[in-house]
Records
---
Amino acid sequence: MKTAETLTMAKALNLALRRCLEADDKTLIMGEDVGKLGGVFRVTDALQKDFGEHRVIDTPLAESAILGTAIGLAMRGFRPIVEIQFDGFVYPAYDQIVSQLAKMHARSRGQVPLPIVVRIPYGGGIGAVEHHSESPEAYFAHTAGLRVVTPSHPVDAYWMLRQAVACNDPVIFFEPKRRYWDKAEVDESLEPTTPLFAGRVARPGTDLTIACYGPMVRTCLEAAAAAEAEGRNLEVLDLRSLSPLDVDLVCASVERTGRLVVVHEAPVWLGVGAEIAARVQERCFYSLQAPVLRVGGFHAPYPPSRIEEHYLPDLDRILDAVDRATEH
Amino acid sequence: MKTAETLTMAKALNLALRRCLEADDKTLIMGEDVGKLGGVFRVTDALQKDFGEHRVIDTPLAESAILGTAIGLAMRGFRPIVEIQFDGFVYPAYDQIVSQLAKMHARSRGQVPLPIVVRIPYGGGIGAVEHHSESPEAYFAHTAGLRVVTPSHPVDAYWMLRQAVACNDPVIFFEPKRRYWDKAEVDESLEPTTPLFAGRVARPGTDLTIACYGPMVRTCLEAAAAAEAEGRNLEVLDLRSLSPLDVDLVCASVERTGRLVVVHEAPVWLGVGAEIAARVQERCFYSLQAPVLRVGGFHAPYPPSRIEEHYLPDLDRILDAVDRATEH
Amino acid sequence: MPDTRPSEGPVELVQLLTPEGERVHHPDYELDLSDAEYRALFRDLALTRRVDLEATALQRQGELGLWAGCLGQEAAQVGSGRAMTPDDFAFPTYREHGVALTRGVDPLSLLGLFRGVSNGGWDPFERNFALYTIVIGNQCLHAVGYAMGVQMEAARAGEAEHSSAVVAYFGDGASSQGDVNESFIWASVFNAPVVFFCQNNQWAISEPLEKQTRIPLYRRAHGFGFHGVRVDGNDVLAVLAVTKRHLQQAREGAGPTLIEAFTYRMGAHTTSDDPTRYRLAADLEAWKLKDPIERMRSFLWKNQLADQDFFDSLDEESEALAVRLREGCRALPDPDPLEIFDHVYAEPHALVAEERAAYASYLASFEAEPGVPA
Amino acid sequence: MPDTRPSEGPVELVQLLTPEGERVHHPDYELDLSDAEYRALFRDLALTRRVDLEATALQRQGELGLWAGCLGQEAAQVGSGRAMTPDDFAFPTYREHGVALTRGVDPLSLLGLFRGVSNGGWDPFERNFALYTIVIGNQCLHAVGYAMGVQMEAARAGEAEHSSAVVAYFGDGASSQGDVNESFIWASVFNAPVVFFCQNNQWAISEPLEKQTRIPLYRRAHGFGFHGVRVDGNDVLAVLAVTKRHLQQAREGAGPTLIEAFTYRMGAHTTSDDPTRYRLAADLEAWKLKDPIERMRSFLWKNQLADQDFFDSLDEESEALAVRLREGCRALPDPDPLEIFDHVYAEPHALVAEERAAYASYLASFEAEPGVPA
Ligand SMILES: Cc1ncc(C[n+]2csc(CCOP(=O)(O)OP(=O)(O)O)c2C)c(N)n1
Ligand SMILES: Cc1ncc(C[n+]2csc(CCOP(=O)(O)OP(=O)(O)O)c2C)c(N)n1
Ligand SMILES: [Mg+2]
Ligand SMILES: [Mg+2]
């Protein structure tokens, strides 16, 4: 049996979903256009054909109902994997997510677990219209009761999705849509080496730490490569999970490098980088040789796509922050 | 004409609303039970009787519609002041708030201002049932296009609400419900000395800065008084506005005291304190003699009321942080 | 002025027992009960009222922070609750104390959330009775999802009938929420085995029915392609018959129904509310004549279905229950503060673990220093 | 299996022009137009189609990032758009290019958001045409709020009639959203002067109508207490007559109506979509026979309401418009990057000012160092 295949992230996710549907007939896929169409990004391609309309469900157009019924299905023993078509369309479901999905387990003192995965393609860089390029992860990571994860490449996409589906807590699974077409070899026979809620060192380095996640990991690795040409040895951390967040990993790195830049597409103001900076300044007060700097989106609605590259952190903006942190 | 009166915060807000309705017949009040009942906290008491059902509108029970129709009314030239009955019931309206209220002005390049005030009683400490004690301000402060303010005492409540209604941007107006019954003399003849979006020094001090807002201001002032007895001179900042946030005020204070504790009821994780810590460690890197510490809610749903005092920052927890910051 | 209102004929109200306690008949809804069954329904009504009165008293005594009473709505709750089989599943609001009782949920466990010692209080799967839902309307979608699950199991097993059906409770005010209307759509499109049970008590806190709708609520269903029916919500027999029939249809695969139980909230919205600010005492007086319990009592008397002994021993039973509630309520322990952290997640979460440990040692620091309270 | 579906009689479809271009009559909806008015409608249809084709071509050429076409829906859009007076206000989705045209919005300004140079593109108050709304259903509540405002003005002025009415556009898929159903409730309860105009093009991306409803959509209104009517959405005359009448009723204070324009999305959902994955080519062929433009062309021809000159000069006009669009589109400038910060708020905001200044000086640093691109 062939176990390794070169796959795009979208196809890796598709394969993970297929394995989940095969492994447990309580798993369901629900969402808008996930059936015949296979999702607007084809992440659910061919799954309805192969598993039937009772496993892969095209729903009416109502996100609150997608979440609300998924909760009811989970109470009946199912394990729904729901798709929100784009980041900007999750808000109609926000009430069900914050008031029910996140709180039911605590409210019931553990009697009602809700093993639901909410897949959300997120982030910009694909030239889309309004509401199709947002990075709302902080809204979810701030919410107790939810877990929030995001892969940065196909191998993680495959494993993290399988792990998320196996988790008995609700998991908000942010898929970096502009990396859907990135390719890598995915070997199903290799067990994942990293637990779902741990980060990893994507590139070891000594001079400065960059912490990032999802779509920005590739960008930061490119920035690190560029910095290397200038003689700077940057460490890049792929956080992978935002709730819980692997603060130990970040602090351990900062204790070695003394400098930290956090990068995300989401607005800097009250973004995940704020929490990381707050934790790191507290835990590594004496190790920090420069303030923690943050690179991210502005406090502004995501702009029209023709100027989105100004909103999105790129090599230059990251390296500019690296320079500032280094020269401090 | 009598201009000064001792009022509770609830009554001060009521008076401010009355003045707004008198001053501009485009202002409207909308919400659940705001009419005959005068709101569950009586903040809109007697306003429908005095201004009529066309100015003070009891709406159907649907928060998304309250916000959505307020937007339409604003497009017709009205200035709606909407009430959300409790913090935990704002989420059905989150989509309209994040995708429309916050973005319309930018989307229309300034052609569609939305001068809407969303009043939300928030915070805990009143022994209420689930969903009635939350502090969701970070969800709003993270959102570009919204302004977020919160008064801490009756005088600010009066003026800040009047200023918020005068503002041409959407303002999320968080009312610290457990302070509704606090009293102070409100003098309508004195113009407010502080602009709406500035913080203020609630108590000057030299040894350490406490930054707080809303319901925690009184608690922090009490903590400062207790600390004084032990010979510590704490400065307490009432931030008043969370978007924009008066970072200059905080940094100026920290530059003098060298120490900062941020206090809020909302969960610490990704709360407003995270952003303050991140900014302050960046701007006051060399002035800080200890890491910025944060005191706030836990990463857990708001607990049953019989144990809420464990969730809420109190004098002991604040002073414990003050000790830790001082001894660092 | 022209009017765009569609005309749909007169409003029908299913009734099997008049306010005077006369048994009447309805062509679509038959009900044939034994004397013992009639008495059992009365017992449910009486116990529900006693629970409600006791809880209200406990709130006044400071033992509960709040109570949302069901005075006047006992028939709607008992009738619909008794229509369910044990396998059916109920999704309540925060007011369904009578339903809870019929499901076999210990009334004492309902008090926890109102006392502030719990946000839940019972195991939803033990009696197929979900936790109270405070955010208006949310539970209707859970109910539909659960019903879809029941349906999928039948479909996978190749069965035309479903093993059970679901009841989604909500109020007249809730009928305005997006979630409730979405739940109608989903139930209709998926033909899910769910009965939507609206207790139209004519008030949403201070707002009268006309702030939510300009036509009778049961007709809402017609716009979504399923049947709606209005039943006298103060008539336990009618509510039982109507709910039973539509639950059975749902189990048979006929899809959803909306039942509007027309009733009246005889008390305040909750113990925090002051209805004198917004409604007339006369209305209440009029509705007292339709009291669901008195009506059933007359019926039992007139038809000699129960004797004085029955009523006396029921009074005793009620009193004993009240005593148990009173004592049980006072004995309900406050949770351990560290429980705040215990069920946030089903699996370990680093941040929660860290905060728990920090708070535990903070608390311990006071124990070390006697005299300094937390 | 029993069925809980209410029976409401046969589905009616208002038609004034058969697919073959025969003029027919309807007792409730009369329409009496001059020859010039008939021709003007045809011109609107033809120009709308030309705009749509050109934009689709521009997308293929890479000038637009995306285009959401209205092929096949021109009659629904032009008929409803022309039913409005200048004082009426329209709240569109993202597909109402034909409505925009009838409102006098320059089609070029529609391209900005699809090109990615704007998130809006026109002044909503100039032609009473709101910005396109992408989040499904949101605009229906705005429409109702706006209509409530119109109504309040009349009430304050003591006028029984309203100065204007509002049209809320939405799709068949959107009918499932909470917001849309809440907008029905509010419009009904407040009796707001709004016409809900649903273009049922039978698809929500890949999902066919039956995923959203099991009865005809116009009947949704009946459950909310107002009138719903289904009109042949490919019949511009019927759409015009029906919309006109219900807008007039709304202005007269008769409240809301739901119009379901039964039509078909002849193209892809957007240029990103591939409908061959989910629907049959045969369906499309069947609908081509009902093409809204061909139908009107036959009508004009058969009744000699227009001659070859008219069609020729309209072709020329269309072509000129297409050229203007093509050239105008290519010339649409990218916004200045600093515009990101310019309209976040109406009044100064310290954080935005700070970020703007920082980014401006960052950008300037590249200008100082020639050769290093931003
Ligand atoms: C989403 C939401 N908004 C507001 C409230 C506050 N609230 C609690 S009960 C209530 C009225 C509910 O009326 P109805 O649905 O008729 O139920 P009833 O209380 O009459 O049983 C309101 C507005 C809430 N709980 N949830
Ligand atoms: C809240 C929300 N969810 C999902 C989407 C993605 N989406 C865009 S158009 C569409 C289908 C809309 O169908 P319909 O309402 O019938 O309008 P049509 O596109 O057919 O004109 C979907 C699901 C969205 N824009 N907004
Ligand atoms: Mg009610
Ligand atoms: Mg459609």
---
Amino acid sequence: MSTIQKIQAEIIEDFELFDDWMQKYEYLIDLGKELAPIKEKYKTKDNLIKGCQSRVWLHAEHTQGKIIFTADSDAIMTKGIVAILINVLSNQEPKDIATAKLDFINEIGLKEQLSATRANGLVSMIKKMKLYAIAFNN
Amino acid sequence: MSTIQKIQAEIIEDFELFDDWMQKYEYLIDLGKELAPIKEKYKTKDNLIKGCQSRVWLHAEHTQGKIIFTADSDAIMTKGIVAILINVLSNQEPKDIATAKLDFINEIGLKEQLSATRANGLVSMIKKMKLYAIAFNN
Amino acid sequence: MLDINQIRKQFPILSRKVNGHELVYFDNGATTQKPNSVITAESNYYQNENSNVHRGVHFLSGLATDKFEETRITIQNFINAKHSHEIIFTKGTTDSINIVASGYRSLLNKGDEIIISELEHHSNIVPWQMCCEQSGATLKVIPLLDNGTLDITEFGNLLSKNTKLVAISHISNTLGTINPIEKIIKKAKAVGAKVLIDGAQAASHISINMQNLDADFYCFSAHKLYGPTGVGVLYGKEDLLNELPAYQGGGEMIKEVSFKKTTYAGLPHKFEAGTPNIAGVVAFKAAINFITGLGINNIAKYEEGLLQYATEEVLKIEGLKIYGTAKNKSAIISFNIKGLHPYDIGMIVDKMGVAIRTGHHCTQPIMDKFNIPGTARISLAVYNTKDEIDICINAIKKAKMMLS
Amino acid sequence: MLDINQIRKQFPILSRKVNGHELVYFDNGATTQKPNSVITAESNYYQNENSNVHRGVHFLSGLATDKFEETRITIQNFINAKHSHEIIFTKGTTDSINIVASGYRSLLNKGDEIIISELEHHSNIVPWQMCCEQSGATLKVIPLLDNGTLDITEFGNLLSKNTKLVAISHISNTLGTINPIEKIIKKAKAVGAKVLIDGAQAASHISINMQNLDADFYCFSAHKLYGPTGVGVLYGKEDLLNELPAYQGGGEMIKEVSFKKTTYAGLPHKFEAGTPNIAGVVAFKAAINFITGLGINNIAKYEEGLLQYATEEVLKIEGLKIYGTAKNKSAIISFNIKGLHPYDIGMIVDKMGVAIRTGHHCTQPIMDKFNIPGTARISLAVYNTKDEIDICINAIKKAKMMLS
Ligand SMILES: Cc1ncc(COP(=O)(O)O)c(C=O)c1O
Ligand SMILES: Cc1ncc(COP(=O)(O)O)c(C=O)c1O
């Protein structure tokens, strides 16, 4: 089992504890609040991913063969999901990121949040993370 | 009772004889065939009333205080109705034509034929007959 | 007095559950729900009447044409237009505005000016930007005051003999402001300008009367009037529609076609190229009948009561700010809660069955003006109730608790 | 083998009476009837799923959006397009063609040439005349041969490096001719021209495959595919749609709006301004499923059998002439009877419950070519039967008797 898969399995386990949407949402809100802040200087226009409603900033750094992602969002629920995605994909090797299957999204019931027509920019965020991985892999 | 009204009453009587659409249509076809021909020189572009599908030519002459209409159509059923309209409105005084109420259309079941969206130009023909009457009345 | 329970029973979707809760549908500004009479009119059309319109001689074609044209007359009466051929059926408000704006590309020149306002929906901004780009005309913008009303003094300053067209919404979909269009129209006419009113948010809420109003063009969408999607109206004064260049080419809109010379049909066909949304137009009549059956003034009065109640209640939530506090206002409440993102609020109340809209509501300039990313918006319709408002307010409170 | 009785049962209108007779609906070229699955999909949408699409975060908005986008994928698969965002939802074929023709106004210049043909529907003529008028380009016309096929040799002569666009129908709605579009596309590509195919009459009758065909644009209407009115498709290759100027301005089609600068959204939204015909698009999926459930090749084969039978039988009527006798023909028969006007024939057979279309079928140049005022047209669909053909032929014979 790769590291990325392991982390996903843990997240799924975490979410299995929740009885209802409220606990899940509260957890996401907490994750959002706890997400390590992105450096202000990285909240640039280039790093901005615009959803229709909430915005996501994503910064990537390549150090010691791994990619470190930092990110932020103006909506806290979006930021909670951003935190999970960073948890899964940051500090991993480019080739693992590029090929990662993010099955956990379905299993923890966030599929709707990550559908192409949602207004939160998360789909573009995942795409961009993978593009960074592909770029750094070459 | 004005002449125009009298003629209408007669037409309604005629149509009351028919049991079904077929007799009515055959009668219209006969009327169409018997309609006194319009002079070829009057089948001009100016006298042409274009429906989407069948065309009507209408010519008007003002003599001795009355209007004489002659007309033709390329479709025989249309021509049958043209014949009736001429029967009712031709050889009448302008002011009577201009103010004529053509109730008989409803009563003989030709209403559909004379609705604005029909493709046969008859609505425009009636309009044009009345316009002639108004013009000659001044 | 309207019997709201009786009205609610006519809307099947209102008895469905969402996320385990009774649906509270407060997104009526985006689109209204449909009564059974509208749904049935559409399915009945397909089951018994369907045919292409206008040119067929067979029975069904005549029937479909009659039904289609009946709606035109119904609309004519509904808005008190002078002629039925002043009613053009379109795809929606956006389509209607584009037909006019596209036509004005060739009617305007450099030096001419179009005036819109800062509170317009994108559908009443972008077509005019495109029109200006192609014609060389200049776009002027009436600024918005802090209470969400238009700066009418400034409008007066913008007006000049160069003003050729003024395009203003009757009611703001974001702020609820009912614009003083009677005054705007009068002032615009005084300098010889034509006026287009975007009535998307007005037609189901307040009485509109073309012959009193003297607007040159008026646009609205069936789907915001308890009617089907994919149908809209462009009302235009006969002589102006005659002047306006044809928009789309195709079937129905022509008089004669040859490779040498094609001539266009008269109104309304000139602007109705191609097979229209026949079923939608037929069903639209049922929607208008629903409204006139209740009486538009009764609807307006009832919604006013709802608005007042909702405003009072919502303001009890600490840190909540309403955008748009005009005195003359339709039943729309846009708000933000201090420190919270509207998206988060929308997400959470949705889990409690409450459908509100969040975001910029296709009015980015308003967001820019207030320097906010968006708002949460409650927009009400005649089938909404005070009980639903209570449920919504409780849901908002809960969201606030969770998010703070 | 298709079970036609089973199929007929799915179409409620087919069991209605017209003028006291069982309806024989042979006006399918104008619009097809709708199966229960389509009618129900539309009413079910309004009863359970209705909301505006794309930008809402609440449950119903997500549901409506998903349903709406499912149809896009269904269409993508139906025509084997490479990307789902190459599928643009429009009002109909006419709308689709106008979007392209309007865009080309600014992409073409004096000296450029557009080629259409003499057998086109007005909807594939007038938009190009307008485009040429505005851009200065020249319209060239492939002539029609006496048998109703295009003069392909002459097409070769018209083609040159000036040819920028070729716009041709897949199947003629008047003559039934299936045009050799594979060949036409190949030849056009050889001189670097783009090709638009008007597939209005093709999509419900024969298999169409974008990736095999290599057409640049392909247009059709849902209402001719057993689907709802007010919905159409514009397929375009990704890069060409990206190049094509935006058509209407408004909600949904923008990325950012400000009075300084507005930027447009990507595909497909760039061409989908305003609230779309959501219910119609959702129901369109059921129509495609109806077709794919039967198998388009089974449909084609069955209709071929009908066409052959009808052609043989109709030719037994003395003095009857068929216009359009191509070898490769769809189930459309246009005819006239010596000395009779098609309008009279249509009127009389209608009284016997038979719905055929009469007139110029929005193809006046074909009428001019054959020097006739119009034709009577039988156009068949998968639910038609040989029995119905017999009824129709008897009705025509009776009409002939009455009129002679
Ligand atoms: C070949 C052809 N092209 C275009 C059209 C126009 O389609 P619509 O009226 O659905 O826009 C038709 C429909 O009659 C047609 O048969
Ligand atoms: C004020 C206003 N104008 C225009 C529109 C556009 O209407 P449609 O999307 O039906 O074309 C809307 C709908 O959101 C609106 O609220």
